[in-house]
Amino acid sequence: MTKTIFFSVGEPSGDQHAARLIRQLANPGGLAMQNDERIICRGFGGPSMLAAGCRVDLDLTRHAVVGIVEVLPKLRKFFRFADQAEDIFRSGSVDSVVLVDFPGFNWHIAKRAKKYGIPVHYYCPPQLWAWGAWRVRKMKRSVDHVVAVLPVEQQFFNQHQIPVSLVGHPFFDAVAEQKLDTAVMRRFHSQQNSGERIVAVLPGSRDHEVRSNFPIQLETIRRLDRELSESGESVRFAVAAYRDKQCLWCREQLSEEDKNLPIDFYVDCTSEIIEAAHCAMMVSGSVSLELLARETPAAVIYRVGRVLHAVGKRVLKIDSVTLPNLMAGRKLFPEFISVGDPEPAIDFLTETMRAMLQDSFYYAKIRRDLQNLRNEHASPGASQRAAELLRSKLFGDLETLPEKKSLGMQTQMRDAA
Fold first, then answer.
1. What percent of the chain has pLDDT over 70?
2. Which of 42, 146, 149, 291 has a C-alpha 20 to 30 A away from that of 193?
């Protein structure tokens, strides 16, 4: 019997996560075998899902928005999209709905699916555990099962009696699949062979993050270069920009006095830089998961305005802004939220990076802790585990679930089924 899964995915990153899941649904475990033709995937998504074999009824990733200012002008359009999904649900052709992040819109999709009695699963759920806990009521009303990607999510939804299974984060699948640029890696290896250590500089993926945080990182580089040069140590700083214009802006921040700084700028080489780096200074974000996967110690900063910081202190229910720290329950990556005067953040970065570069015992301890956390929570295979869970929900064949070694998921699946 053929079953149809409807996906609703609005962010480019979610498009990639969903595409891996769709490939696993079609070809379990990536084995050289006939595709599982029992499952048809369709819905709202993006080009990655289309390439994975999903019928994309609407490229929702083209309409991704951030913040209320961007959302309001497009409200009517999003309601039309929700109506389009309801027309599909009304036809009776959909057996299950999978939502991926994008909560503002996906709440409407979930509500309309439930109107027609269609089971709803939330993969990569919204971070209600960090903020917005009041939306738990929406989750209880509209979602049948949460497919959690972080231990803190599993704990949160368990506390609120919402069926949940922990499969691990698909980001680690992406890291495992990543093919590093051999030419870039040869350059880094050449630098390392000459006695240079590489420090990754990750200024963020969004323009406002780069403009707020890179000046702090640059002043830290200046101070470290002076100190390390005096002690005869050789270090190069590799700036990983996501876009050409961000790279250009970072270059323009160098003054005439910076012409001898040991600093290089790269675009779209973040994975290579993290892999080669001795340590990193980074802006808080999902890239911290790649640092964990590659066991690269890092110091984390994030610069915010006074108003946003005041609101965050009232709303946020967590004591860290770094995902590996939340996974570990302690601060493996030292972090600092910068508000107002940037000098304390510069001091923090300088002191922490100096310790990572000069204190071998401190550095070794961080590496050891990262390795332990990686072994426990950063193994690839999340997409396969999520696919097996969805398959079991559709067909009831729990015996096909893979043995779970590190996430303790199998028992949870059986209990939640």
1. 84
2. 291
